[in-house]
Amino acid sequence: MAEGREAPIGVFDSGVGGLSVLGEISRLLPAESLLYVADCGHIPYGEKSPAFIRERCAQVADFFLEQGAKALVLACNTATVAAVADLRERHPLWPIVGMEPAVKPAAAATRSGVVGVLATTGTLQSAKFAALLDRFANDVKVITQPCPGLVELIEAGDLHSPVLRELLAGYVQPLLDAGCDTLILGCTHYPFLKPLLSQMIPPTIILIDTGAAVARQLQRLLEKDQLLANGPARQAQFWTSASPEHFRNILPTLWKPSDIVRSFSR
Ligand code: DGL
Fold first, then answer.
1. Which residues does ligand 1 sit against, CB inside 6 Å?
2. 197 shares its domain with 68
3. What CA–CA distances, in Å, run from 134 to 130, 205, 214?
4. How far is ligand 1, taken at its centre, from the CA of residue 74, in Å?
5. Coil, strand, or helix at residue 235?
6. What is the pLDDT of residues 145-157, one digit of tens each?
7. Which end of the chain has the smaller Cβ count within 10 Å, N or C?
8. Nearest atom, ligand 1, residue 76 CA
9. From edge to edge, which strands make up the β-sheet containing 114-119?
10. Can you give the residue range of the structural domain that contains 118?
11. How many domains does the structure of the chain reveal?
12. For residue 173, what is the domain's CATH number?
């Protein structure tokens, strides 16, 4: 098993959304060996209870530890709000990077003073999100929009069908009508909708997601512990709790072709 700098990094999402974060990590840290678990058998996390999500995260974290992972990235806003505190308590010495909707940068970027947040129901209902608003959104108006249905369509490989377009427009248009000039993509699945979104919103609207910030935070933590890998670029490996074949088929659209897709059966 690889150790120290050469050990892998575990990256986790309820499904394919975390591939938007994996892309940022592999661009910034190409020498890292990346292990990705997609809990596709249990999507959408956005409609599940925090206790259920915590249990799934604990299972995945144990799996990554068995693989010798030197760090964990929760590439999922919904899993972070439900489980990051629990995971840090269980594994106090393990570098764990979570993610949450980018309220602070959005509050700094807006000129209209109205910010829209597209995220899952679970994220928007969480105490962690309420605390984020308390801390960073005092001077701006924040309008939240849960987006049930989007994750399922993206998981099916749909990034621009008429059904998806209509669903997305129903979520975004009220935010624009309310004066939002900045939209937070608060779920890691949504950056894959940027091409479609850019066809339905004015070019002046600012879209903010946190994938790149997560990659930089991971880099900082690894640097601090002298755990950054050196050497040539490595291929990522994938596990899914649903069909490996479906995941393999979707990878060329959301990532790049890969044969290293296995079944995750916990
Ligand atoms: N990708 C996840 C997030 O960032 C949630 C998707 C789901 O509902 O399973 O919130």
1. 13-15, 17, 43-46, 76-78, 120, 123, 151, 187-189
2. no
3. 6, 24, 22
4. 10
5. coil
6. 999 999 999 999 9
7. N
8. 4
9. 141-146, 114-119, 182-185, 206-208
10. 103-209
11. 2
12. 3.40.50.1860
